[in-house]
Predict the 3D structure of the following.
Amino acid sequence: MATDRTFYLETFGCQMNAHDSEKVIGTLEQQGYRRVESEEEADLILYNTCSIRDKAEQKVFHRLQDYKTLYKAGKRFGVLGCVAQQEGEKIFARAPHVSLVSGSASYRRLPEMLSRLEAGEKRITGLDDRQTEETFETEFTARQNPYRGYITIIEGCDKFCAYCVVPYTRGKERSRRSSSVLDEARRIADQGYTEIQLLGQNVNSYRDPEGKRSFAELLAAVGETVGIRRVRFTTSHPRDFTRDIVEAIDAVPALCDHVHLPVQSGSSRILNAMRRDYTAEEYLEKIAWLKAARRPISLSTDIIVGFPGERPDDFIETMDLLAKVEYDCVFGFKYSARPNTPALTMIDSIPDEEKARRLQVLLERQREIQRVNYAKHLGQTVEVMVEGFNPAREQVVGRSSQNKPVNFSCAQAIAPAPGTYLNVRITTTHPNSLVGQAV
Ligand code: SAH
Ligand code: SF4
Ligand code: F3S
């Protein structure tokens, strides 16, 4: 085991990556490593990478370039995550100072890979062939988020949407045993967390290897964990989104009033080309269930504009869908061609300026929708969980159950700690946030 070795870890990408990093940090600490805050202080420099879009992928190579002189000082570099899995050994050619390349499906082997690194090996790989059935579970998770405990319930993806790298970077879809998930929920609650977020590329494609619980039943069981006040889950796939999920939200108070349901496009023709396995009509039917719930379920989504072959009339259908659903939050992206994906064989014919124009039109329309949605909270009192403090504005920042950001002032001399719940009366609304006063 190493003694007084240090590491630096920087994370890019989604919440799955952020949580993987918590597990990687815990594993390294268990191996005798100590985390430091800068590349210069570290013996081992790790980047946990993302390759969802072109720009995300470039970041890691820029970072490796910026710090490559540190190699001469005896420091070692490792690339983890999605770029690692996607580029594999090609990374050694492009950045020869890298010694370790590992995708997320191989993190179980990290202790072994670390000892080989310490023994001086220069070309260590942990690459997945979409065969593994294993999930990365560890009791050593070093939780970095002060108010939210993450739990991975399903890893990988078998959906193969035409534009997406994830099935190639995260391996095949595999679920954790529901009893193991519930044990972790219990441990998180014992550590003092009151909010849990269940994670997976498609959480609702969950299939319990023990055959004990459906996704909705697991969700309800996590929500019934003593001490847990808020449960979130992300991301849901529309195809596998079933009515019992809505029923669970209605029945279990701890499940939050929010569902993120990425639609990608409002045109069934484009959805078909994207291989999403649902039509716009089917999607809207599921939205209707959510809107008919007793709880005020807030909706958010992801949309890609400029997918190969997207015509102006397809884009208009996306705009129409936006108006029908009235989301509270939309993540909009310009399509970018990704390695290995089926969409690479389609001609990426829409110029970048046109993609940018469509994105801007979309986001401007959405801003107006949100302006109206958020204004409905004026004068209401909402329960907010504190996430931090903004000293510049002297405001406490937090979120409502619906996942809306709430910034507020508070009579207490000392700002309430992250994880505290307060009722806030809303006095001002914006298209992306609510402002108020603790009551
Ligand atoms: N598993 C989730 C999404 C994961 S990726 C789902 O199926 O919805 C997060 C978002 O990135 C996607 O929803 C999509 O909108 C966007 N995205 C993925 N690949 C992309 C690409 N090649 N170009 C542009 N946006 C992309
Ligand atoms: Fe990517 Fe589709 Fe899988 Fe989501 S469901 S991760 S978009 S392939
Ligand atoms: Fe990026 Fe991999 Fe997540 S590509 S978005 S880090 S699954």
Remarks:
- The two ends are 53 Å apart (CA to CA).
- The chain has 13 helices and 19 strands.
